[in-house]
Amino acid sequence: MMQAIKLRKSIRKYKDVDVSPEHLQNIKTIINGAKHLFNNIPMEVLLIEDGSKITDTFKGLISKYTKVKAPHYLAFTSEIQEGHLENIGFIGEEIVLMLTELGIGTCWLGSAIKQDLFKTIFTVKENQNYIILIAFGYPLEPLKPVTTRKRFDKSKIITGALDTQYETIVQSIIDAPSAINSQPWKLAINNNKFDLFLENKNILTKKILKDTNHIDIGIGLSHLYNSAIELGYKIELKKASHKDMGNSEYIISAILNKN
Ligand SMILES: Cc1cc2nc3c(=O)[nH]c(=O)nc-3n(C[C@H](O)[C@H](O)[C@H](O)COP(=O)(O)O)c2cc1C
User: Fold this and answer.
1) CA-closest candidate to residue 52, choices 128, 121, 125, 140
2) pLDDT per residue as tens digits for the range 15-73
3) Which of 23, 66, 119, 179 could make an S-S bridge to 212, C-beta 3.0–4.6 Å?
4) CATH, residue 219
């Protein structure tokens, strides 16, 4: 997955062809096998093979969507419970990274869609709501390792001493996608314990991204989790009875141990 983290970037231009039937089959398997952050929150991933169902329906309503015209989309629905947004981010980003390994491009699309309209076109399970889309397809330009990204410096992301053995893991979070590139993650590292906080560093986008930033946190956690696993760590994820830290909202802790 670490190679996928390096290769991944948001793809907004796709080849005008469908993904092969073999790849679509792989994607269904990936969706079914994706790890959940919270197993108790009912959620679904809808594989929308006919992307025009999205682009035609939401054309004119939401300009951002029509900007990212892809052959296919994944739509996420979930029950609204504490942690459901982090759960969707965590599950969705693992799917993103696995699609990247297949040479498939992706882009999270977070603009608001009217629930009622969505529900007239797609079957949404009782008690669940539409949450977010991921566009996907073969990228116009093949994926290659991204060498520079517009990101905050490490010093804005972490507090506490960073042991060199964890540098790759912290870098994997820095490389993660986030809405409007807001990078709302903050890590307090204490030995092998990573406390993850949500902190939007931009006053202008803080309100608009209030909910979406919780998806970003799940995405960042997926990068942390998948890179740590690849580096041979065993990870325990648990919510401690922590206090928020200044402007930062405590979300979850990851405890890393070598197998
Ligand atoms: C939750 C979320 C929502 C996003 N929504 C949109 C969107 O509506 N339109 C878009 O073009 N990009 C969207 N993006 C992509 C971000 O702009 C992108 O991840 C960020 O600028 C960093 O660039 P990178 O993904 O290429 O590393 C979204 C990303 C995330 C994680």
Assistant:
1) 121
2) 999 999 999 999 999 999 999 999 999 999 999 999 999 988 876 555 555 578 899 99
3) 179
4) 3.40.109.30
- Is the CB of 96 within 6 Å of ligand 1? no
Please indicate whether residue 178, judged by its CB atom, sits closer than 6 Å to ligand 1: yes
Q: Which domain holds residue 66?
A: 2-137
Helices within 102-211 (DSSP H only): 115-121, 154-157, 167-174, 203-206
Among 137, 168, 190, identify where a domain stops. Answer: 137
Quote the number of domains for the chain: 2
Expressed in angstroms and rounded, the spacing between residue 57 Cα and the centre of ligand 1 is: 21
The residue whose CB lies within 8 Å of the most ligand 1 atoms, and thus the one to mutate among 7, 61, 178, 214, is: 178
Confidence category of residue 98, pLDDT binned at 50, 70, 90? very high
For residues 168 and 221, membership in a common domain is answered with: yes
Q: 133 with 185, same domain? A: no
Dist CA 186 CA 159 (whole Å): 8
